[in-house]
Amino acid sequence: MTSINKPSRLFFLPGAIGRMDYWLPAAQRLRYPAEQRHFGWPGFGPTPPEPGVQGIDDLVAKVSSELELPSALIAQSMGGVVAIRAALRQPGQITHLVLTATSGGLDMAALGAEDWRDQVRANFPTLPDWFLEEREDLTARLPELQMPVLLLWGDADPISPVSVGEKLAQCLPDARLHVLAGGGHDLAFTHAEQVAALIDRHLQQGQ
Q1: Residue 80: inside a domain, yes or no?
Q2: Angle at the Cα of 17 from the Cα atoms of 48 and 74, rounded to 5 degrees
Q3: Has residue 4 been placed in a domain?
Q4: Residues 103-132 as b or e (16 or more Cβ within 10 Å = b)
Q5: What is the pLDDT of residues 89-148, one digit of tens each?
Q6: Taking the CA of residue 116 as centre, how many other CA atoms within 13 Å lie in the half-sphere pointing to its CB?
Q7: How large is the average pLDDT for residues 20-49?
Q8: SS3 (DSSP) at 194
Q9: Pair 162, 184: CB distance under 8 Å
Q10: Residue 122: CB partners within 8 Å, gap ≥ 6?
Q11: Do the Cβ atoms of 155 and 108 come closer than 8 Å?
Q12: Rg of the chain over all Cα atoms, to the nearest angstrom
């Protein structure tokens, strides 16, 4: 386990729907003193598309370009995959990870997850198609992430069931899984007070 620094910035990464307000209820309850930045994904939700964003590698590059100071990445769903890949790319800049309701780059079908792609394509037809095809398996690289990781899962989420959080907890060297009763895929929004308390405790780890 490596030494742990204090994060100077907290980056909040949403899922594929691109809701920049998703993390606000929890973020506004945090007591941890750090600058907060809320990402939107170009071409997702209310964020206008950018010609240079044509795949998940481009989203990772956008996040990585802002990692000038020790930072914590706090991410949901697709944002969790971006966070993991950014942390693999620049591990020295990431002090803490918080991952919730994400695939984490695992084989979701093998873990009993419901396939969400057809429903999302039908409900959100303007979303870029490329993210629906993203299936890179990061399992073998997860042990490289030595920073403390908080895993937040809901027991009522068919898209990313608790089995996914349990698998990530096994693969990551320094991970703690918390399962929130009644939490669905949007648990950080619906259970903001509980989530904020857990994140505050996590960010204090190692200080």
Answers
A1: yes
A2: 100
A3: no
A4: bbbbebeebebeebeeebeeeeeebbeebe
A5: 999 999 999 999 998 888 887 888 877 777 777 877 787 877 777 778 899 999 999 999
A6: 23
A7: 92
A8: helix
A9: no
A10: none
A11: no
A12: 16
**Residue 3 — pLDDT band, cuts 50, 70, 90?**
very low
- Residue whose structure tokens are 């919730």: 100
Look up the CATH number of the domain holding residue 36.
3.40.50.1820
**Total count of residues recorded for the chain:** 207
Range of the domain at 50: 9-203
- Under DSSP, the state recorded for 8 is S
Backbone angles phi, psi at 37, to 5 degrees: -130, 130
- CA distance from start to end of the chain: 14
Amino acid at site 30: L
**How many distinct structural domains can be found in the chain?**
1
Report residue 188 as tokens.
Answer: 């950080």
